[in-house]
Design brief:
alpha+beta; Phosphorylase Kinase, domain 1; Aminoglycoside 3'-phosphotransferase, Chain: A, domain 2; five-stranded antiparallel beta sheet; two-stranded antiparallel ribbon; globular
C-alpha cells in the first residue's frame, strides 16, 4: 500500500473509531521505531493518541498483551480504546505531551521526586509473580549477544570505520560472551526494556505514565534500573544513582535479590555495559541505515558510561583500550 493511501485509510479509520466530532489531528511524536503517533483533538478539547504501527515492522499483538499485563499490575500505561490489527492502527488514551526528560531539563530539582516514584514503579513491576507471564519471551544470552554485536556491526564499522581484522585484536566477542554470562545469571523478573526518561510521561497532575512497553521480556533484575539511572538521554550524579539503587533494594522483595550489595552493584554495572553497547549500536544504525541523525548526539554520554565502567573491571580492559584508541568522531 502506498504511503498516501495508508494515510487516507488511517484518517478514515480514526474518524470511524472516535464517536465524537474531531477538531484536528496533529503529529504527536516520533521515535526510533516505524511507528507514527498523532494527537486527535476533539471539539470539547479532550484528546486521544492515534498510532500507525505497520504490522510488517511492529509486534502489535505484543503491545496489546503487555498493556493488559501492566494494567493488571496497576502500572499507569495508555488505555487501548480501539485497534485494527490487519493494518496496525490504534487509538489509545493520551498521557500528555510532556516527558520526564523534558521536565528535568526545565528543572533538575524535580529529579528526587520523579526518580523516587519511577524506581517504585520498577519495583512494583518486578515484585509481580513472573510465573503469571509465561507468554513473555525470555531475554536470553543469544539476544544479549546479538544486541552487543550491534556495537561492532554499526558503530565500529560504520561510524568509527574500523575493520573486522582490527576489531579481532581486541577480543571484543569474548568480552561480550563474559558479559552475557554474568548478566543472564541474574534473577529473572518482568523487564519493560526501555524504561528511561523519554518513555515516562508526566501529566498536568505530575503523575507518571509509561510508554513503549511492547518489547517487554522476562530478564535480568538490574535491566530497567540501569535504563533509568544510567539513561542515554540525561546524566545523573553518581551519589544520587547509589541512593536510588538503595531505595530499589528496600522496595524489592528479598526473594528477588539474593546477592550481596557489592555483587548487586557489579551486576548493575555489567548490565549497563550490555545495554550501552546495544544503545550505541542502535543509535549508529538509526543514522546509517534509517537516516535518523538525532540519536547520534546521545552517543558521547552513552560512551562515557561505558568508558567509566570498563575502567573498573579487569576483564573489560581490552574494551577499554579499544575505546581509548577509537574516540567518537
Amino acid at each position: 500500500m502506498k504511503h498516501n493511501e495508508r494515510n487516507t485509510l488511517f484518517k478514515s479509520w480514526i474518524e470511524n473509531s472516535i464517536d465524537a466530532p474531531i477538531r484536528r489531528i496533529e503529529t504527536a511524536s516520533s521515535d526510533a521505531s516505524f511507528r507514527s503517533y498523532y494527537r486527535v483533538i476533539l471539539h470539547n478539547e479532550n484528546s486521544y493518541i492515534a498510532v500507525d504501527s505497520p504490522p510488517e515492522h511492529e509486534n502489535n499483538k505484543s503491545f496489546i498483551r503487555i498493556a493488559k499485563i501492566l494494567d493488571g499490575m496497576k502500572i499507569p500505561v495508555p488505555r487501548i480504546i480501539d485497534y485494527e490489527l490487519n493494518h496496525g492502527f490504534f487509538i489509545v488514551s493520551d498521557l500528555g505531551k510532556t516527558t520526564m526528560l523534558m521536565r528535568l531539563r526545565e528543572n533538575m530539582n524535580l529529579s528526587s521526586d520523579f526518580y523516587t516514584r519511577a524506581v517504585t514503579l520498577i519495583s512494583k513491576m518486578q515484585n509481580s509473580e513472573v510465573s503469571s507471564y509465561t507468554e513473555l519471551p525470555l531475554y536470553d544470552k543469544g539476544l544479549m549477544l546479538d544486541e552487543m554485536k550491534l556495537f561492532i556491526d554499526w558503530y565500529c564499522k560504520f561510524e568509527l570505520k574500523v575493520n573486522e581484522e582490527e576489531i579481532q585484536k581486541y577480543d571484543l566477542y569474548s568480552i561480550f560472551n563474559q558479559i552475557a554470562d554474568r548478566t543472564y545469571d541474574q534473577e529473572k523478573v518482568f523487564v519493560h526494556r526501555d524504561f528511561h526518561s523519554r518513555n515516562i510521561m508526566i501529566n498536568t497532575n505530575n503523575q507518571l505514565g509509561l510508554l513503549d512497553f511492547q518489547d517487554a521480556v522476562i530478564g535480568p533484575i538490574t535491566y530497567d534500573l540501569v535504563s533509568l539511572l544510567r539513561d542515554c538521554y540525561i546524566s545523573l550524579p553518581e551519589p544520587f544513582i547509589l541512593e536510588k539503587i538503595k531505595q530499589f533494594h528496600q522496595e524489592t522483595t528479598s526473594s528477588l535479590i539474593k546477592t550481596t550489595h557489592e555483587d548487586f552493584l557489579k551486576d548493575f554495572d555489567l548490565m549497563g555495559v550490555q545495554r550501552h553497547l546495544k544503545a550505541i549500536g542502535i543509535f549508529s544504525r538509526l543514522k546509517h541505515r534509517d537516516k535518523k541523525e538525532n540519536y547520534i548526539l546521545d552517543i558521547p554520554r552513552t560512551r562515557s558510561y561505558l568508558e567509566r565502567t570498563c575502567n573498573k573491571y579487569e576483564f573489560l580492559q581490552s574494551l577499554s583500550n579499544f575505546l581509548r584508541k577509537y574516540s567518537h568522531p
